[in-house]
Structures are given as C-alpha cells and as structure tokens.
Amino acid sequence: MPWVEEHERGGTKVRRYFRWAPGARRDLSILVLLGIAVAGYGGTTGASGGGSSGPAPRPRSTVTYPVHFEGWDDPRPAPRPTVSYPIRFDR
User: Fold this and answer.
1) Is residue 47 pLDDT above 60, yes or no?
2) Residue 30: beta bridge partners?
C-alpha cells in the first residue's frame, strides 16, 4: 500500500496520495466480515460464566400506583392577561 509522491502529470501538479495495493480492498473486506462473524459468534457460545442454573431473576418494579405528583390535589391558577384592551400589532 504505497504512497504516491507529489508529481506533475500533463503540466498539472498532483498532490501526494495513498494508493491501495491490487486486491487489498477485497482482502480487507473479507477480514472485516470474518471479524464481525467471530464477534457475533463469541456472544452465543452457550456457556454461562456465572455458574448459576436457571434463568436470571426478573427486575422488580419500584413504583407505587396510583402515581401522584406534587401539586396534584391543589393546582395553581392559570395565568391571565394583565390588560383588558386589545393590543394592535399591525403598526
């Protein structure tokens, strides 16, 4: 995977750039797919490291129903406009 140095082509200056070796993209894509397959297979081995038998316990709910919020029984009054005349915004 060589770096192509800065040069001139047909009177145009070409900056330095990286060029993949022939077949390197295919090889890299195969390597990435193989790595994904190994990572995916690694989580489904079936062996449990905890040493416990049976399914894991389910989480318990910590909520008490019915739910009440602060100020639920004594709500504050809704705000009202402070002026009783119409305000014109067309000017």
Assistant:
1) no
2) none
